[in-house]
Amino acid sequence: MDEINGSNTHSRYLEGLNLNPLLSATTSLEEAINDAHAVFMAIPSHNFRSVFEQVAPLVHSGAPIISMTKGLEATTQKRMTEVIHEYCPDHPVGVLTGPNLAREILEGKAAASVLALDNASADWLQPVLNVGLFRVYRNDDVIGCELGGVLKNIIALAVGLGDGLGAGDNTRAALITRGLAEITRLGTALGGRADTFAGLAGMGDMIATCTSPQSRNRHVGLQLAQGKSVQEITDAMNMVAEGVKSAPTVVSLANRHHIEVPICSEIQRILEGKADATRVYRGLIRVVAGAESEPG
Questions:
Q1: Which residues pair with 39 in a beta bridge?
Q2: Which terminal residue of the chain, N or C, has fewer Cβ atoms less than 10 Å from its own Cβ?
Q3: Based on the number of CB atoms within 10 Å of its own CB, is 226 exposed (0-12), middle (13-18) or buried (19 or more)?
Q4: Domains assigned to the chain
């Protein structure tokens, strides 16, 4: 907090970059939310509920609440917008998601995001969020947009694993494409729309997360390829790789809805220590191919 307010920098996560001087930080929820016309929640999924319980009573009546968290609650299998609705049922609720790597946005590079809202009364947020080369598109599929941000993280773990094992561009492209088909099957079964997963919240976010050196989930996959344990990898990271925490919940949801998710299932076996990363990856790329529309 002192660094952000004193020098407009955040060296732990964004070394060498300056923050907007209008940005201020506080350790007081009351101070942060007082007079806020909208509240954006960027809390890791495993702490989301405990923080939002304190936030909810402070939000002004009718103020939209937007989740930026790309994870699921492990104990309830709920999306973050569902958690928000539990405490603030009368507020407009939505998600801001897409291929948004923080460093590039702060450097002023062009980026696109999606704002999905469950209430048209909060549409005024879209033009407010369009700043410089950061473009925000509107969508009314809150479920699909939210799940796109969650599910692609697990595919990024698999792609990072492949990159770490020396897979080529062709293999990476095939894995991303099959991964997109996998998350679309599950996402639509959970209530999202197929076209959402072909857009910024699905394919766009998938490409960025699966290919960028800045991707935390891809980084975990790279480290798994080196034979490191999940505990070793996460202990050495400053930030949260949501795919690691979401994988068990995603696989459980897929099983409940009878949706085949071979990539997510195999990654979960690795994360649980039930399978060797190298063997699993070789199995994934050797799977017998059927029709392109089929799982596998």
A1: 65
A2: N
A3: exposed
A4: 2-141 (3.40.50.720), 143-285 (1.10.1040.10)
User: What tens digit of pLDDT does each residue of 186-218 get?
Assistant: 999 999 999 999 999 999 999 999 999 999 999
Q: Residue 84: exposed, middle, or buried by beta-carbon count in 10 A (0-12, 13-18, 19+)?
A: buried
- State pTM to two decimals: 0.91
DSSP lists the bridge partners of residue 94 as 66, 117
Would you please indicate which residues are annotated as catalytic (active-site) residues? Answer: 152
Note the pLDDT tens digit of each residue in 12-25: 989 999 999 999 99
Q: Identify the CA nearest to 186 among candidates 241, 258, 116.
A: 258
Contact (CB, 8 A) for 77 and 249: yes
* Amino acid, single-letter form, for residue 158: A
CA–CA distance from 103 to each of 33, 148, 212, 216 (Å)? 25, 21, 11, 13
